[in-house]
């Protein structure tokens, strides 16, 4: 076991320790001042069922931060196990939508037509300071899902989820 106090000198250790928590991977899309913008994020969570609220947290250091936090509407695409290429694409550059089929509606962010197992179209209702990130809360206006296993991220690696037992129907 390794113990440490999180701080500037232990930032890598802290990041690696956070990586022990497996998360799903999303691509968040908005319409920026110059067109569509996307960002890979694993900081997605449900906040409330009633009303239907979700959150995600873009990094302030990102060149896409202003577009992401300034948009009134955004879409969160939960990626499937086969969609690692999409995660990598939007982790590196959020401006390259070349070759991607998108659905566009007046006033809505670009919606990826493929490469997701769940999708949430949201209206931003709050934006909070979160240190070197922001916390963006959205009211879910529409949701969609497809069957398939999720893309998972843990300890700096992508992978797939393998269930150990069948889900109980009453959960």
Automatic annotation (TrEMBL):
It comes from the Bacteria. Residues 18-160 form the Flavin reductase like domain. Signal peptide: none annotated. GO terms for molecular function: FMN binding; riboflavin reductase (NADPH) activity. Pfam families: Flavin_Reduct. The keyword Oxidoreductase applies. Keywords: Oxidoreductase. PANTHER family: FLAVIN REDUCTASE, FLAVIN-DEPENDENT MONOOXYGENASE, REDUCTASE SUBUNIT HSAB. Belongs to the non-flavoprotein flavin reductase family. This is Flavin reductase (DIM6/NTAB) family NADH-FMN oxidoreductase RutF. It comes from Rhodovulum bhavnagarense.
């Amino acid at each position: 076991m390794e113990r440490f106090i999180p701080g500037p000198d232990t930032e890598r250790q802290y990041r690696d320790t956070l990586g022990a928590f497996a998360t799903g991977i999303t691509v968040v899309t908005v319409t920026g001042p110059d067109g569509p913008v996307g960002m890979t994020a694993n900081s997605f969570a449900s906040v409330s069922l009633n009303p239907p609220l979700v959150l995600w947290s873009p990094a302030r250091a990102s060149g896409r931060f202003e577009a992401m936090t300034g948009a009134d509407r955004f879409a969160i695409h939960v990626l499937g196990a086969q969609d690692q290429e999409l995660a990598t694409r939007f982790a590196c550059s959020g401006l390259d939508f070349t070759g991607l089929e998108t659905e566009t509606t007046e006033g809505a962010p670009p919606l990826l037509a493929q490469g997701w197992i769940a999708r949430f179209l949201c209206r931003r209702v709050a934006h909070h300071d979160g240190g070197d990130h922001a916390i963006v809360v959205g009211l879910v206006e529409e949701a969609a899902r497809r069957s398939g296993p999720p893309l998972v991220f843990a300890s700096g690696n992508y992978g797939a989820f393998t269930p150990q037992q069948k889900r109980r129907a009453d959960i």
